[in-house]
Amino acid sequence: MAELPILSIMTWSPFVAALIVMFFARHRPLLVRWVSLIGATVSLVASLWVYCAYDYDAAGFQFHEEFSLVPSLGISYLLAVDGISILMCLLTSIIIFAGVFASWTVKQRSQEFYALLLLLVTGVYGVFVSLDLFIFFLFYEIAVLPMYLLIGIWGSTGEVRPQGIFGWAFGRTGVGTKEYAAMKLTLYLLFGSAFILVGILALYVAGGSQTFSFLAFEQMEFDPTLQSWVFLAFYIGFGILAAIWPFHTWSPDGHAAAPTAVSMLHAGVLMKLGAYGVVRLGMGLLPEATVEWVWLVGAIACINIVYGALSAMAQTDLKYVIAYSSVSHMGVVMLGAATLTASGLNGSVFQMFAHGIMTGLFFALVGLVYEKTHSREIYKMGGFGTMMPGIATAFTIGGLSSLGLPATAGFVAEFLTFLGAWESNYSWWLFPAVFGAFLTSIYVLRVAGQIFWGPKSTDPHFQHLPDAQGTEWAALGILVFVLVLFGVAPSIAIGPIDTATGPLLQRLLGQ
Amino acid sequence: MMDAGYVALAAPLLHVLAFLILAIVAPLRRLGRPAAYVSILCAAGALAAALNAWRAHAGDQISRIVWTWLPEQGQSLATIGVLADADSTVMLTLVALVSLLVQVYSLGYLSDEPKRALGRYYAYQSLFAFSMMGLVIAPNLLQLFICWELVGLCSYLLIGFWYQKPAAARAALKAFWTTKAGDVGLLIGIVLLYRQAGTFDLTELQVLVANGALPLAGLSIITFCIYLGAVGKSAQFPLHVWLPDAMEGPTPVSALIHAATMVTAGVYLLMRTAWLFALTPDVLLIVAWIGAITALLAAILACIQNDVKRVLAYSTVSQLGYMMTAIGAGFAGAGFFHLLTHGVFKALLFLGAGAMIHAVHSNNLSDMGRLARSMPQTAIVFIIGTLSLAGIPMFGGFLSKEEILGAVWEGGLVGPFIILMLVAFLTAFYMFKAVFLAFFGLAPSHASHAAPSHPHDPPASMSLPLWILALLSMAIGVYFTFTHPEPEFVSPGWLMPSAVGVAVAGIALAWLVYQRRAISADGLARAFSPVYYAAENKFWVDAFFEKVVARGALAFSGAVGWLDRYIVDGVLNVISAWTLTAGDDLRGLQSGKAQDYVYGVAVGVLVLLLWVQFA
Asked: pTM value?
């Protein structure tokens, strides 16, 4: 498949669109949107094309593209995808496609907003497709950094009162403002990427300083002690982005402060970068260390699941509920990976996809509700189901997926993870995982019941609220459709996942 | 000829077709009645398919069709498909019949609903019928679980159909959460069983069990977990609390979901896996005792209700306890038989109650009275249903109830048997209490708010389903009074007369108290005052869940939320604050004065010299 650099097209089309938006669409907001939409569409088509054209019988990495960048250091532009990355690219393209629609009503500096959003997406694609760890790291940083501006400029300020024994510290850091959230998120993630860089360089040096190629590293046997330390570095570095406890606190603040499309992308896709990094680099390159450390990964994942769900239950701000539910669901992703079983790994990757779509849908909905009510206070709202039936229905479907109701993607992911957990060496993981799913049903339906399916609020601001309109439907429709489609016919995702997790598992356990 | 399994499959597929049409074609859904016609048309087709499937499988014919649903490493991890045999197709027919009748009935019952709401209602109804049928014909435990959750969802949606009413919104959530708690058990049970057996497939599992190839270690835990799912769904003590509250939904919904079909899913599950439970007699004993306790507590609660739907709801809980006790005694067939007859006459009772409620605009028995004059048809069908429930010969529940009693006796469970005999008495009592209060006795005091002066029999769309169910109950009753199917056991000869005698005694007491007024109801309450007091407080089960479990969970989550915000994140902010402060402080070092720097250099050199000297 050397004729068309399809992966480069997918990766760089948002970037090209960003350039066009920046330089040729000045002060023409509609053109900005259309160019962005075209960029997102090109990458969506490309990712669908990759999904269809991938040779599932041959498996492994396909669609190779390579040319040397810095031969003396062994850095090259090396792209290829396997089953996991195909699915992640598909997720990214769906979310950005929906995200362009969800940002249609951004008024302030929409040109820069779209440009940064698209730049960020290029970074995300790049991480999923690059096999050269140097390029991988570059893309990773591109994916993380625009977030600072996107939240800092277009974000919204919440309400967190500094109190408790550390109240003085909150006062000092300026908690609650969007600037605080942006800074916290960026610093935290950069702190994590320092670990990743150290890990990558350690492998590079241990591998003879010849190459950064993932494929080359895959062939090498690293020293067990080195593996152990590098795995921990990757786990912490990527784990911060995947919101592992106790490094998750950037996520609620960041997601709550971010504008709609940014929350969608960040919770929907960027958090998956973290999990993807742990699976691809940590587990893929360091099999012995993986087996050594899974007890920790799994145990922390269990904490994530239950702790995240309990914290979500305690929130009164709608965006915080969704953000904490992400913390809980990313626990399922990490737990599935830590089981080291076929079902668990499949469930883990499936959950990356399912949670991406689900949380994208949630943040799109929260954005819509906020736009119409100018409120995120759950307990001030009530009975919106009559006024905005479309939004209410979409929220409920997202919620049902989140609590793992069958016929939505969430069920397949959670069920596979549960199966894997019980088959793993630490079968007790099953119980916190199932308990977390039960807690999810409590807080999600409680919120849905309060906001949509309950008695009407008497607040005069909430008497006449419109349902979603025009382009807003596009984002909701796509995401709901995907969520149900993958729940009803999971084999369309399990097919590609299986081709990648099988060999990975063999490598992990076949030593 | 086409495989008969496809005929069984056609029934749920027709319902899902109706659901998809109504869900996707929003303009049609918003028209209201046309949407209802689409749904009813599909339901009629589904009934025809189900009847055909039943006819094809009435003997020993078994059809099994499966497709891979979830692949794993080139193999099939889970399948979906059809397992049609005598049991599943007769259940399929029951579901198809009751859902069709309920859908027709709802046309009249919900005629005042806004068009949009009506369309939504029929979409939910179709989704429910699809899921319930999918559950019934499930060839494996995973499909069963999937449909199990979907019927729970439909139950939630339909209980909360009038979600603007706070009580309905609350009841919907309560139902979902309570059943979900049981479902957690079921899910764990399925996962554990998969590890033990390597399959979800019922047929393969049965072969494993028959060959003795299933390891028995830990099997009790597995069957107990599966049973927990049934406890939630089939409203067994202590998770029965959601069912009476579920009466906030429209009455046809109560008839279909909360009497005839969904709540019996737990019984059905245990019947389908009876060969598995047979390996764990300890769990069966629990099933039987919990069933008997449920039957008794619910019957006592039914006696003190004034709301006709709640009487029926507790009666459903009580009858589910009956079925479970029979299964616990090891005779799943008897429980399943009662499930089928109960499905018919309880649907009849609920729909009849719906006609009464529709006529007097109140659920309260005290707002009814002497309705036999103004609503003779409703009175007749309701009394037929009541006699069926009481287990009087020639009526629907007669033989199935005796079979359960016989099964429990035969299983050697004397304690549960005595309880069930007591429950038979109470059942006849509370049901006839409702009959006498509603249809005979005194006219209601018209002081109550909305009672119109001229209640009348319902329109044809409502009375037709009533008569069909009534005649069906009679037919079942007459048929089984004279032709005894070969039971798995022979009950002692004294059992049938004494069971009927107990029921007649219950009717007589109700007559004395509520018709002749020879015994004062208050006096009766006083005579049993401790029981009455406990029953008034619903045996404190609801209070336990609301005050202890719910509040405890909320308080705990609040504590975790606080911990996360102010301690876990607090530590992070402390580090940041220290960094900021350190920056501020260290900034002082860059004073810009040359003498400070020279001073610093001098101190540094001194320290270095000392270090070189002594280190």
From this structure: 0.92
